[in-house]
Write a structure and sequence with these properties.
This protein is of the alpha/beta class. The protein contains eleven helices and 14 strands.
Length: about 350
C-alpha cells in the first residue's frame, strides 16, 4: 500500500464520530489529522494526536490534508465541497450530495475542473442485510425476480432538536433526502436506472414542516417491481428486505449492528465488528418438486463500512473507478427531487 491519505473531518457530530473517524484512524490507507470543532473539543478524548480547528477554512487551508470529508449540514455540502476542491483537496461527501440534479452536475464539473475526485458516502451498500439480500438475488435461488421491497422505518414522533433539519426553507431536508438516498442507492447499485417510477410523500408528525413518509414504486425490465418505503411514525417492525421471485421468497429484518457497535466505541478492527448475533438470519423459502416448500435460514453477511474507505483509497491513489458513480448519483437525484 502506498502512503496513507492525510484526511480531515469537517464536523465531529454523530456522523464524524461514528461513521468516519473510527475508519480513518484504523484503516492503514489513511491518517486522521484534523477535525473542525467550533465548541466543545471532544475528538481528542478518543484521538489524542488530532488537531481540532475552530473553523472550516482553517482545516481546508491545511496544506498537508489531501482528503476532506464533507459531513456538514445538507444545505452546505456544495459550498464546502467546492471550497475544498479549490484548495486542492479530494472530497468524500455525506449523502445527499446536494438538493438538485443541477447542483450534482455542478459538483462533478468542479471536480473535473480542479482535477479532484468527488466521492459520495453511501455506506448502506455495506449493511449486512443488504449484502445478504444481494447475495440471494444474484444467486438466482428465487428465480426470475417479481417484486422487491426495501424499507427503513423509525418511530420518532417528536420534531428533531436540530432546527436546520426540520426547516422547510433549507433545501434537501425531510425523510426523502435523509433516508431516501440509502434505499435508492441500494436499488441503483443492483439494477441501475429504473424504467419509470412514482413517488408518494406525506407529512404526519404534528408541527412538522418537512415530509416524514415516502414510498417509491420503481419499474424495471422483465416486469420487476421495486418498492422503497420509509416513515418516522412506523411503530411495528417490518422486514427491511423482501424479495419475491418465480421460485421463492426471501425475508430479512434490518438488523445491521455496525452503527450500534461504533456508537459504543467498538473499532472496525475488532473481530466481532459487523457480525450480527445468532437469531437475525434471513429466511429463504423456495418451491421444489411437487410444489413442496422448503424454508431455510440464510446466515447474515458481515457488514463492513470499511469497504467504502478502501474504495476511496484506491480511487485517490490508483485512480480506480469509485463504486458510487456520477451516473448513480444523477439517477438518485432524479428520484429525490421529483
Amino acid at each position: 500500500m502506498l502512503k496513507p491519505i492525510v484526511t480531515g473531518l469537517l464536523a465531529y457530530g454523530m456522523s464524524g464520530r461514528i461513521f468516519h473517524a473510527p475508519f480513518i484512524s484504523t484503516n492503514p490507507g489513511f491518517t486522521l489529522k484534523a477535525v473542525v470543532e467550533r465548541h466543545e473539543k471532544k475528538a481528542a478524548k478518543v484521538y489524542p494526536d488530532i488537531i481540532s480547528y475552530n473553523a472550516i477554512d482553517d482545516l481546508i487551508n491545511d496544506d498537508e490534508i489531501e482528503l476532506v470529508i464533507v459531513n456538514t449540514p445538507n444545505y452546505l455540502h456544495i459550498e464546502h465541497a467546492v471550497k475544498a476542491m479549490q484548495a486542492g483537496k479530494h472530497v468524500l461527501i455525506e449523502k445527499p450530495a446536494a438538493a438538485t440534479s443541477a447542483e450534482v452536475k455542478y459538483l462533478y464539473d468542479m471536480g473535473r475542473q480542479f482535477n479532484r475526485h468527488v466521492m459520495l458516502y453511501q455506506n448502506r451498500r455495506y449493511d449486512s442485510g443488504f449484502l445478504s439480500a444481494k447475495e440471494v438475488i444474484e444467486s438466482g435461488r428465487v428465480g426470475d425476480l417479481i417484486e422487491i421491497i426495501f424499507r427503513m422505518d423509525r418511530y420518532k414522533a417528536a420534531i428533531g432538536v436540530k432546527a436546520f433539519k426540520e426547516n422547510k426553507e433549507n433545501p434537501a431536508n425531510g425523510i426523502v433526502y435523509d433516508l431516501g438516498p440509502h434505499l435508492i442507492d441500494n436499488v441503483i447499485s443492483l439494477f441501475g436506472k429504473p424504467l419509470s417510477f412514482t413517488k408518494t410523500v406525506g407529512t404526519y408528525r404534528e408541527g412538522s414542516q418537512v415530509p416524514d413518509y415516502f414510498n417509491y414504486h420503481l419499474t424495471y425490465p422483465n416486469q420487476l417491481n421495486v418498492y422503497l418505503t420509509s416513515g418516522l411514525l412506523i411503530a411495528g417492525e417490518l422486514p427491511g428486505f423482501v424479495v419475491h421471485g418465480t421460485l421463492g421468497s426471501f425475508f430479512k429484518n434490518r438488523t445491521d449492528v455496525q452503527e450500534a457497535q461504533l456508537d459504543k466505541g467498538m473499532m472496525p478492527t475488532n473481530e466481532g465488528y459487523g457480525v450480527e448475533p445468532a437469531g437475525n438470519e434471513g429466511q429463504l423459502t423456495t418451491v421444489g418438486i411437487d410444489n413442496q416448500k422448503i424454508t431455510e435460514l440464510v446466515p447474515s453477511q458481515k457488514g463492513d463500512y470499511n469497504q467504502i474507505f478502501d474504495a476511496v483509497y484506491h480511487t485517490i491513489r490508483n485512480n480506480a473507478l469509485f463504486p458510487i458513480t456520477e451516473e448513480h448519483i444523477a439517477w438518485q437525484h432524479e428520484l429525490l427531487e421529483a
